[in-house]
Amino acid sequence: MRIILELKPEVETRLVAHAAAMGMSVERYLESLVEKSLSKEEAFIEVTIPQEKWKAALNNLGRSPSLAQTLPLSDEAISRESIYTREDD
User: Fold this and answer.
1) What CA–CA distance (Å, rounded) separates 53 from 47?
2) In sequence order, which residues have a C-beta less than 8 Å from that of residue 61 and are 6 or more positions away?
């Protein structure tokens, strides 16, 4: 694919400098930037979970036997006085 870009002179200067610093042609450097950007986007898309699957995962976690063995916190442990101490003032 051939693409023509109109760049501002200062952007072109920076692009040429970055490509040279990487030991690449400008064309190859731009290609590597596009590939890197697309792979990041694909990774993000793969990580994104549909809401239904997310809800199902949370429901399964809520039914987990390890959570059933966990004792609830005492009233004193969750009291305002216990949470906000004098050091917080």
Assistant:
1) 12
2) 67
